[in-house]
Amino acid sequence: MGNPKDDPEYDEFCDPDNPRKIKYEDILAASRRMAGLVVKTPLPRTHMSDRLGMDLYIKQEFLQYTGCFKERGVRNTLLLLNDDQKKNGVTAASTGNHGIAMCYVSAQMGMPNAVVMPIHAPITKVNKAERQGGKVILFGNNMAEAKRHAMTYAKEKKMVYVNGFDHPNVIEGQGTVGIEIMEQLPTVDAVLVPCGGGSLLAGVAIAVKHLKPDTEVYGVQTDKCCGMVEALRKNDRVFVTIDSTLADGLAVNKVGVNTFYNLKGLVDKMVIVREDWVARAIMHIVEEERFVVEGAGAVTVASVMAGLFPNLKGKKVVCVCSGGNIDTTTLARSLERGMAAEGRLVKFKVTVSDRPGGMADMCSLLATIGVTIRDCVPERAWVKGDVFSCQLKVIVETRGWDHTKELVEQIKKHYKDYVFQDMNERTDKTSGARRGPCLAPNPVCMQK
């Protein structure tokens, strides 16, 4: 057996044989250290509260300068470096947000930096990191490969590698979100926190449970990236494969040593929400709250919309919306997916007469019931039967399921050949996800 410290991926701050216990006092010290250097983000009551049957508040971490809560952990960590470390600079591996924060804070403090991102990292985040004065290296197909490259690079250049979700000082910095929530809403009943590697969830849980122990704290992941749920289920930090996900900020293959160690017994439950609900949540947050959030930031609201918290009806609930760095193309797709899931974007095929006025009659019919045509493509060559008919592939916009039902009835009444896509799948009626393993020794949510 060689010395584990010779492994390029050995990190003294994230040592599986020596996990660090994070204390509330360290989070409080971080809060004081960073006063005035990070944004104390607002915590307004949402417009969707009444519809969802609870007092729902959004902690707007997307209003940090870099568009994400990661700035807190990075700021706290870099403030604690000694002069030699600051001179040599810092490096990190990131899917985007941690890298952006690292570039911004280190450039502000006059320190060299280098951030390794997977080659499929969102373009918005890559560009944003470079604009903040960062050196971005694209390497690897996933976070695990990017991390190995970043740690090797750090040892070669004598730079400090800062783990974005497991460094003890990073967890302390993220925990300041919990302190702010308790200051802004002392009567809070439950806090919902997105979870990727676990630094935000661990930090917030430590702060909230110290200040108000009966407050419920839940971690939320999506069905595409649920590493923490798997780790807790198997009581081991297992490697999980992650393909494409809308919540790229949560795409961590293996959760942190320190976060895994600190979470157990503190978090009441882990919850998994399906990604189609995340797209719907992004759409509703844009429409009703007028905020733009990324997939990872919307998972908490998505889990409430999906009906995963019947025990929180009538309670004061805080959803941490962790970031807002979403590609415009991803945002557009999310809005369309959300509309389709709620019956507001409908796709169908209908065969009409190919004689003059045939298409116009169908368009007039749609106009009379107030349906907007988004796209209409005629198909003649592959239509069976009558050569004087034409099949139209139509995408329309409606006001919702009732309006869509009216559309279907009118098409059925006036045409013989038609096909509506997925009309039986009313996703607003399906279960949103499954709940993960319970972590609390004496779960608060199950006592009520």
TrEMBL record:
Tell me where the signal peptide lies: none
Q: Does the keyword Lyase apply?
A: yes
The Tryptophan synthase beta chain-like PALP domain covers 38-323
For this protein, what is any one GO molecular function term? L-serine ammonia-lyase activity
Q: Which cofactor does it need?
A: pyridoxal 5'-phosphate
One Pfam assignment? PALP
Name the source's superkingdom: Eukaryota
Q: Name one GO biological process term.
A: L-threonine catabolic process
Q: Which UniProt keywords apply?
A: Lyase, Pyridoxal phosphate
Q: Which InterPro entries match?
A: Ser/Thr_Dehydratase, TrpB-like_PALP, TrpB-like_PALP_sf
> Which family does the similarity line name?
Belongs to the serine/threonine dehydratase family.
| Stated name of the protein | L-serine deaminase
